[in-house]
## 1
Amino acid sequence: MNKIPFLFAVLLWLAGCQSKPETVAKSDIQGIDSSIKPENNFFMYVNRIWYDTAQIPPSQSGVGAYMFMNFPQRLRLQGILDSVSKANNTAGSIEQKLGDFYASGMDTTTINQRSFDPIKPLLTRIDSISNLTSLMKFVATEARLNNTSFLAFGVGPDNKNSKLNIAHIYQTGIGLPERDYYFRTDAPSVAIQQAYKLYLARLFQLTGSDSATASKDAGIVYNIDKQLAGSHRTNIELRDVNANYNKMSVTTLEKKQPNIGWQHVLNDLGAKTDSIDVAQPSYYDKLNTALKSIPISEWKIYLKAYTISNYADELSQPFVDASFELNKVITGQAVQKTRGEKMASSVDRQLGWALGQLYVKKYFTEDAKKRVLDLVNNLQKALAARVDKLDWMSDSTKQKAKEKLFAITKKIGYPDKWRDYSNVVIVKDKYFENVVSASSNNYLFQLAKLNKPVDRSEWLTTPSTVTAYNNPNANEIVFPAAILQPPYFDNNADDALNYGGIGMVIGHEITHTFDDQGAQFDKDGNVKNWWTKDDYAKFKAKTQNVIDLYNTFVVLDTVHVKGAMTVGENAADVGGVSIAYDAFKLTKEGQDSTKIGGYTPDQRFFISVARIWRVKMKNEFLRLWINNNPHSPPMWRVNGPLMNNPHFYDAFNVKQGDSMYLPEEKRIHIW
Ligand SMILES: [Zn+2]
């Protein structure tokens, strides 16, 4: 059911609002609210006027200028798809596949006529399940088509031998965003539990159950979910890289969890392997006992719920509406998005590399790539200089840190080779089958990598996604084409704005190399200790300071930032701004003090930092964010790092007694 990846892919949208995309011309800094003192709340000083006037459209859960929530970006993708779906394309070309996939999703007449016909064969197969063997067979074979339930299987690098791809299994099997949703008793959480049960009952009713049976069955599914959720690790426990690595032989696993029948499961998954990394063993131990303690008749009800839910958005309007009613309670989004907006996201999920290819052709320039590479190189040098000056780290660890820093692979724009979609069959009037065909192709693409060397040229997000990432298994940082645009980057803007914008993002990604998780990987991407014992203890104490500080930030009523869940991102924000600032000081403008548009170069740098995280969200969405997102909410992505940055204190004259002031001994200084 995996509602959460869906929510984050689709709903974490955001944007320079519904108007024109934001541009940052050389002297253009507007909208500063001088009634707010920068030293008291810098985020609001820069963003308040925007914040008070920005309207969250009813079909969205937030607006702003933040990464993967970029609304204008989604309109660009939709524009590409609108035009390609109307063109005359060669059969089998990526244009034909993209255009026909989109058109099939826009054809709601056919989709509504088919109601839930496309999944009837699946429901019949569930009816015929008679024992554990046939139950597991259904689960494993359907996992290959992304109709997932209580089994999450994937292929990826071995954390201790990062050049080789191995099989991994993860905790899963729940429909709410994460385990704590089943155990919290506060009013917003109880409302979500209720909405989820109503949603499950509605799915059963839509496929033929009377209302009493539907409610009873919803209760059964919820109970199974809750039992499985009890064995899940928390978001915080999932950050411990070593605890979440448990490679074992299939023979051992088979003995440990005999009810699952791992050898059969792996055969049905098409996975030839004699070992597997069981990321969260307690979940599969629980599943093993639950498969016996819960009657098969109840598991069949559970599988029906997951199957209908997994495909709800591909079926007729009543299913789509049911799915939306649940999302509404979780995210606060008032009305559904347009069909075009939803279908652009669907194509992006299913054929994202083909769409990315057309996006790059239309929107990306090689100039941007060159200038950003210069920035990345400058940031890398700036961090090396900071490492040299650290007073808490020994010379031998410094040497290793710098080796790791200069071994980082930089990927900018788009990959050298594109994903092949030649096996995906796309037909104009079969939306459901198109989704299944693309899912199957994605699965086979992953499966083909099992026990093969890692292809280090591969990218993990598409070039049209407004994001950046650090992949510790490859010791690489990646900046897709879509983030190389305003407000992050503008080839016409001055260095202060670009270093405070994309420079801060680059600094953030470089710092991940050395955050609470990144620090556990060596320069080749293996989980291996490269620290002296003493240095690592000091590092841990410093990351604890980050946790303690961010725990004090109250976001919504009594809800505060989860310091331990967000520590990696917060450390990257604090380090990112410092490194970007140092690199900026190496530029001509950074050396100067001439004001532009009324602000010094340093002030412009910090204003740019505050502008890139400009965002306004519905309270429901903010609550979801605080519970699940490893990043702090936007205001704290600005005020948090700046409270710890001495140059910010100088630029805006922050003094004791100001809200942004922290005594020097309390300020975070890791890198
Ligand atoms: Zn990050």
## 2
Amino acid sequence: MHRLRALALAGVVAGAALVPATAAAPRTMAAPPPCSEEPRENPISEFTSYDELLVELDRVERVSTGRVSVEEVGSSNRGRGMMLARVGTGPKVVFITAEIHGNEKTGPDALLDVLDYLGTSDSSAAQQIRERLTVVAMPKINPDGASLDRRGNDLTWQEVQSRFPQLAASPPPWNYITDQRQGDDYSQRPGFDVNRDYHPNLEYQPQPQDFPGSSDQPGWFLSPETQTVRDVYKGLQAEFGTVDTYVDLHHQGACYTVPGTDEFVTMSLSGKFVADPSTPEGSAFADFADTYRPEYSKQLNVAAYNALQAAAEKNPAFGNITLYPQDINLPGTGLGAFQLNGSGAVLFEVRGQTQTLGEQHREMLTKTVHIGLGGILSSVASGEVEQLDPASYDKIPPTDRGQRTLGRTTDIED
Ligand SMILES: [Zn+2]
């Protein structure tokens, strides 16, 4: 891995050496530096750790003088409390989760910034959000994976079988990780890709015939982490009727580009996660055709996109936003499951996980998430989101996923 990195650096240096020091090199002529997806060990200490999150949430709650409330709503498999923060008293609920993949770390930091803002700002914009919305945030929904700085959680199939005796003779599911993944060795500490463990039927109980499953099939709520998020979602349904908006914060490959440019994608967006339940492709979930609101998901994405394009006047990187691939059917994701249940849904995919980018661009990428969330919250609170044209979503440029990548590309997961 270090060899590839060294090659990349050598390429940059060699390219520069070709230009005489006195000449004003036309920047557009230089080949862009290559980019590597090869996993490597990177420091992560600038990101908020689990223990730091507890301290920060406590601080935010305190300085908000009653506006932000924090509670522990469940426990990870290794006993870490699953934390939830709530701010606002409005009739519409916006539910936001982050770091279900433990190597995707800008989400918790951005959520802390948003909570701090909503808890302390007396601006009219913050007041409007607090009056019209209830914002519910879970900043680290895979705290065991986060502490290991890896994608999966820390849970063995044997532990699952002991809790679900009906699975004693079943094979482990397809998303159980026991080998190498994204540079992490799971052989001594297996785990699951928790973001394939959801089921659109929130009352589902695991059945032996549903194993090992596959990516286009729903999950099973095997992990304590997804059980907790599901229970929070059900509680919000009971309280608010519908969970108006659900946003899940992720990271993706480090080397994707904006089509037709040499610009790296800062963040990709999506509002589509499952086949439309009113079509033959989505017929497995036809029962959800009445609650599925794809146009509203598009409007929410446009709200985030517009806010970032406006911010690009200050930093062009905020404008490098693309659409995540749309030809997916992932009913085992939180976004897919909750979207079928009637939530407008938004996926944020920030550039580069910790094994590739580490802390590089941390502040800018965290700010990108913050701006995008701010666009959604203000647009939903003001009602402007209802006026946005869903067709604008389809005009967001797609993601160019291949041009400048060095190293393995088969191991990139979002
Ligand atoms: Zn992810």
## 3
Amino acid sequence: MNISDSERAITILETMGYKPASKQNEADLILINACSVRGSAIDRIHGMMPAFKILKEKNKKLKLVLTGCLLKVDRKKFEENFDYILDIKDLPRWPHLLGIRNQESGIRDYLKIKPKYTDEKIVYIPISNGCDNFCTYCAVPYTRDRLKCRSHKDVLSEVKSVIKNGAREIWLLGQNVNDYKSPADSSIKFPKLLKLVNNIPGDFIIKFTSPHPKNFSKELIKIMASCKKIAHYLNLPMQSGDNKILKAMNRPYTAQQYKTLVKKIRRAIPDIKLSTDVIVGFPGETKKQFENTLKLFKELNFDMGYIARFSPRPGTLAAKMKDDVSPKEKARRWNIINTILLKKWSRRK
Ligand code: SF4
């Protein structure tokens, strides 16, 4: 989603007369598109500040601009380091906010801005923005706000236009694609949208991210299995294999329900490549509860996994819980799952 946001930001910067610089020290404007989802991403921006300070001393014209998924607390921390902190949803007003133009563009919805695609073959197309799910560890409902879906007409017209320009892989993006409902026609939910994209003529494949296991419908499985252009690849975030931890995460499914869903998907699409997301060291996660995650992870034999160590994001419910798994223990749990993945890949080579 951040790539897609950056592509729209590039369009706006270009309308202001900016062109890409080949080196940082040649730039008159540096835009950082932040992500507050993990503490480590915010720490990386802090790490860049000394270098930016030197650049600013050398180039008095240099503007430092921060945008992206930012929690209030992170935004506050950066106030003195950046010249501007701008919301991505205010993109149409950036020229005005940056003092380049008095007039506002008149565009109200930032998703209406035509993006400057960084890759013409693999194109990321948002179908919604924000999230209503409030998983307790996640900053997205606070940084991106509540769910707002894009009209299916806008999505289809963007897909048609990129296909015409040679795109071969389309990624439909949403924080939970399964919550999608077109504001232009409430009968068009995610499975139907996928079918409509699949019906667009052309030689391309469709991927999407992320689907929530809680509302992964039979209809979606059927459409994935029957539509030729939909890739047999799926990232299905599991997060934990322990029911108590899933409950504490506000993930409304059990380990058994997740397992049943995976089985149904594999039965319908036998050659599907499955990946998952797991958080280790969530507050209160005992060794036994981690073992439950490990057991399910091994049993489901994922092709790929994205394993994160829990880091509290201020303002979320999980940040109020006791972060009682030590960094060393989080690293141990993280290593155990990653070793399984590494062994799997080395056997494949
Ligand atoms: S569904 Fe995804 S984006 Fe939404 S709150 Fe949960 S983890 Fe965050």
## 4
Amino acid sequence: MANKTPFTSITAFCANCGSILPLLQEFGSVKCYSCKSVYGAEKFNNIKFKYTIHFNTVSTVENENILNMDNPEGPVVERKCPKCGNDRMSYATLQLRSADEGQTVFYTCTSCKYKETENS
Ligand SMILES: [Zn+2]
Ligand SMILES: [Zn+2]
């Protein structure tokens, strides 16, 4: 059996008979299925920590960036608003994907708040 992969650290073996022990439950101890040896939960603290760390990473970065563009205070350029004809629009840039793919420019009419985007 390979024992170099990180996953082997979540598996424990019975010190008595060498059987694979069941995974630790939330509370209590672990009992060997083969020889009925019982191991206290404290023996598995380290293992349990490594085992649960995977489930704590949640990523919600993308949405935040876009929501922030609702209130652009960027520089104003001469650009005609297609909606109201005003010739001043403020703009802000946002890198949506990787650096190679250019950026998106957000224009906002200073008069009617009409928004348009342009990919550079
Ligand atoms: Zn055993
Ligand atoms: Zn406008």
